[in-house]
Amino acid sequence: MTDxxxxxxxxxxxxxxxxTYYDMKSLPNHGVDQNPEDKITPPSEKGIRCNRFTTxxxxxxxxxxxxxxxxSPYNDTLSLKIPFQDLFRFWWNRCVVQExxxxxxxxxxxxxxxxLMAPSEKKENEMDMTLDFNQMSFLSNSIxxxx
Length: 147
Known about the structure:
The protein is mainly alpha-helical. The protein contains five helices and two strands; from the N terminus they run ααββααα. The longest helix has 20 residues, at 98-117. The chain starts with a helix and ends in a 30-residue tail after the last helix.
């Protein structure tokens, strides 16, 4: 899918499920005012409904929106209606400041290779746990077993 197709698909899913801006911003299990600009009608008469999302965080709400089949918050391996590679490319092209992400990635790669190159350190207070059995004398003749 192209970035335009991904965006159109997600917008269609939002429209199909009747999600509004106020669903996106408010907490689950809280009322969503369908007409917040109306300051005259009392809240008890406004027809406030529950949030369309059942989860709190944006990443979970996107899973809920794009999952194949019934959404379960306890399943981390949900299949999505859009391939992850297409979502990642869309995110990269439209949602992030690439220079900042590149800096973070390069910093992580630098740290990884620095840790690989670090000499192994032996702690000063660490006890030497190696045994040299050639230096030990065993008194095998003096051991008796009572039957």
